[in-house]
């Protein structure tokens, strides 16, 4: 084949696979095959420069710098949206629309993710990408065509011929994975890291050297149409959702989370569902955008000075914010690791008030360059512990002292040590009170021994008075009942409940017991893996390195940590004592799944489809716990016919209630 035909064939093949990958999310070939074809085209174009074209995928790697960014005036302004916070404001939006349209009918909406990136306008002329422009002030943006070409997912040529001009709008985002990788490289080079993916994406789009943009591996999703001059105003579609479907066909990616929904209730349900999905999405979102789906209704609704009357941005609580860092203090964890923690001016972030945030370790603290008195960026994403991202240097007032690493354990005064090759600073004193308190808090935790009624304050009080000294001493509390009842403010009932809870914890699964012991590197999953493979505590206690390292998911480091832990005489003593006190982890019954981990389930009423015993055993097998009474800690009540007071209590407390069928529907088919 002649070079010209081969080059055009390669372009078509590459664009086809990019479409399969970015738009359909269903690739037909692997990355290496794509790279091979890509390189073949690059080589061809290098050997025959006359074959280069403005729609060649090889442009995606970037080109030498431009001199500056030229202004670009938008054919139609790029407006912003009104915000809604909370369900009430969302319902008010729906009501406003129905009032304006003078209808009581349910309105149909297209609900989409609100991408947290940088908006871009893409103009295509006769099917070819002509201009990519940033939003700018909404009227005039910057011409970033050279950079737009490097963004995978932005088609260089439309997949169907389209004479005339069309402008497609959407958001350029950086995937969380690309963001983490970018910051990892920056850290290695000792450079200032990016505070968030939005800044990295927006900055990436405004580079003069498009090779820099290419290196940021940006992504693009479309959310609509701007200007179009298709044969005398012919509309591409009748609804917003059809516009998106058409744009998908033309080669523009969008997200499968988008949904057409009817009425306010469905909107509320949708925004809540997306909020649940938010932490697991591959990129950041800051809310949901809701648009009236019918284009006729959109036209009828029109615009206010601010933006369209037919759309709204439903905003989630921000995951990042600014606040003052008042003080940095050292906290000792259960393995003795000393962690710098920031004491913050309380601030709302991620939907909760945060007054403390981790600074991870002293190396990280030094790298971020945070100082006491700084205004800092605080972040809390999903259930993750709040962290300090970094200082806002411009806001620093005067010379703040550089925080120093502690030279003594803040709790017991022992000189800290650092293992070779580790960043963590540790208090080497095994009797350090802070370590013991942290170990006990972990031991009684919900996913560990799950002992109710032994909270942080009570543990501290019992440690101070010498009633608790270590893990085994928990199981001796029963013998000191009367003494405990005498302690101030502790009711007889709560002591009895505590003792009952301790007693029932004696038969937790071996997996939980292993996790509870606090062996370094052994988490919830590790406990399960080890219990499943070795089955008995004795086998685990006496396992040699080779046996341990043969367990799936247990690496060399973890294997030696486990071995060292069990070899420690102090740990051997504690295990023996606990066994002597009646602790008998249920061996060989490691949960086979984590379906119900952390959940307490109550069965009540007459059960007709399965026996109570088998259901309770099943819950244990799936990592959960069953209980005989309903409390605020109950996660789920399964009620059969004739259920009485427990059902009532559950309803009072707002605990989820299902019938037997409902329960069966929650579990994977065939597992029960
Ligand atoms: S529609 C007139 N849809 O949010 C309609 N915008 O305040 C304008 N954004 O700057 C935008 N995801 O960059 C729309 N699914 C989405 C969006 C979205 C993110 C951004 C957009 C705009 C801002 C609106």
Known CATH architecture of the largest domain: 2-Layer Sandwich
**Strand-residue proportion:** 15-25%
Q: Rg, please?
A: 30 Å
Question: Which overall shape is indicated by the principal axes computed on the Cα atoms?
Answer: globular
**Number of distinct beta strands:** 21
The N- and C-terminal alpha carbons lie at a distance of 61 Å
Q: Main beta sheet: strand number and arrangement?
A: 6 strands, antiparallel
Structural class: alpha+beta
CATH superfamily of the largest domain: DNA ligase/mRNA capping enzyme
Q: Quote the average pLDDT.
A: 92
CATH topology assignment of the largest domain: D-amino Acid Aminotransferase, Chain A, domain 1
Q: Give the proportion of residues in helices.
A: 25-40%
Total domain count: 6
pLDDT under 50 segments (min length 5)? Answer: none
CATH class division of the largest domain: Alpha Beta
| Hetero compounds | 2-(butylsulfanyl)adenosine
**SS summary, helix count:** 25
């Amino acid at each position: 084949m002649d070079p010209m035909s081969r080059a055009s064939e390669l372009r078509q093949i590459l664009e086809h696979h990019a479409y399969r990958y970015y738009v359909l999310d269903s690739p037909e070939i692997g990355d290496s095959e794509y790279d091979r074809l890509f390189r073949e085209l690059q080589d061809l174009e290098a050997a025959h420069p006359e074959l280069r074209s403005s729609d060649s995928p090889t442009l995606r790697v970037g080109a030498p710098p431009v001199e500056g960014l030229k202004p670009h005036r938008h054919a139609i302004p790029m407006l912003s949206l009104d915000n809604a916070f909370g369900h009430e404001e969302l319902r008010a939006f729906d009501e406003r629309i129905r009032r304006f349209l003078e209808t009581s009918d349910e309105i149909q909406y297209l609900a989409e993710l609100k991408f947290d990136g940088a908006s871009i306008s893409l103009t295509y002329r006769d099917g070819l990408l002509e201009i990519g422009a940033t939003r700018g002030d909404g009227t005039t943006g910057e011409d970033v065509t050279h950079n737009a070409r490097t963004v995978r997912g932005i088609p260089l040529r439309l997949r169907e011929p389209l004479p005339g001009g069309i402008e497609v709008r959407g958001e350029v985002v950086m995937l969380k994975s690309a963001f983490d990788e970018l910051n990892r490289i920056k850290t290695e080079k000792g450079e200032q890291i990016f505070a968030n993916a939005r800044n990295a994406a927006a900055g990436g789009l405004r580079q003069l050297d498009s090779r820099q943009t290419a290196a940021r591996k940006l992504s693009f999703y479309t959310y609509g149409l701007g200007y179009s001059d298709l044969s005398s105003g012919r509309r591409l579609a009748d609804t917003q959702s059809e516009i998106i479907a058409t744009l998908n066909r033309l080669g523009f990616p969008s997200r499968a989370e988008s949904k057409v929904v009817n009425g306010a209730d469905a909107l509320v349900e949708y925004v809540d569902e997306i909020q649940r999905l938010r932490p697991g999405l591959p990129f950041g979102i800051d809310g949901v955008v809701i648009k009236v789906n019918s284009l006729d209704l959109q036209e009828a609704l029109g615009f206010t000075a601010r933006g369209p009357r037919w759309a709204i941005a439903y905003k989630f609580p921000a995951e990042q914010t600014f606040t003052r860092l008042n003080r940095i203090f050292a906290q000792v964890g259960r393995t003795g690791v000393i962690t710098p923690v920031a004491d913050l001016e309380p601030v709302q972030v991620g939907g909760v008030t945060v007054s403390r945030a981790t600074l991870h370790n002293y190396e990280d603290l030094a790298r971020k360059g945070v100082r006491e008195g700084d205004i800092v960026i605080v972040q809390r994403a999903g259930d993750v512990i709040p962290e300090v991202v970094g200082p806002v240097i411009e806001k620093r007032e005067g010379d703040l002292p550089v925080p120093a690493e502690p030279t003594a354990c803040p709790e017991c005064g022992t000189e800290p040590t650092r293992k070779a090759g580790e960043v963590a600073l540790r208090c080497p004193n095994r009797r350090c009170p802070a370590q013991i308190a942290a170990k006990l808090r972990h031991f009684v935790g919900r996913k560990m021994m799950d002992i109710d009624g032994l909270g942080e304050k009570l543990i501290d009080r019992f440690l101070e008075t010498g009633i608790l000294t270590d893990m085994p001493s928990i199981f001796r509390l029963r013998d000191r009942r009367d003494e405990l009842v005498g302690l101030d403010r502790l009711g007889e009932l709560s002591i009895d409940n505590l003792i009952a809870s301790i007693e029932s914890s004696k038969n937790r699964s071996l997996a939980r017991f292993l996790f509870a012991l606090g062996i370094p590197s052994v988490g919830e999953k590790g406990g399960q893996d080890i219990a499943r493979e070795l089955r008995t505590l004795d086998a685990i206690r006496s396992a040699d390195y080779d046996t341990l390292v043969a367990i799936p998911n247990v690496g060399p480091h973890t294997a030696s940590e486990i071995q060292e832990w069990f070899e420690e005489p102090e740990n051997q003593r504690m295990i023996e004592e606990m066994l002597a006190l009646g602790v008998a982890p249920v061996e060989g019954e490691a949960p086979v799944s984590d379906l119900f981990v952390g959940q307490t389930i109550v069965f009540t009423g007459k059960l007709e489809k399965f026996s109570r015993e088998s259901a309770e055993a099943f819950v244990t097998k799936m990592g959960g716990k069953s209980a005989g009474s309903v409390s605020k800690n109950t996660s789920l009540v399964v009620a059969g016919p004739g259920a009485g007071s427990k059902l009532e209590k559950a309803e009072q407390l707002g605990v989820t209630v299902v019938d037997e069928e409902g329960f069966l529907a929650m579990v994977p088919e065939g597992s029960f």
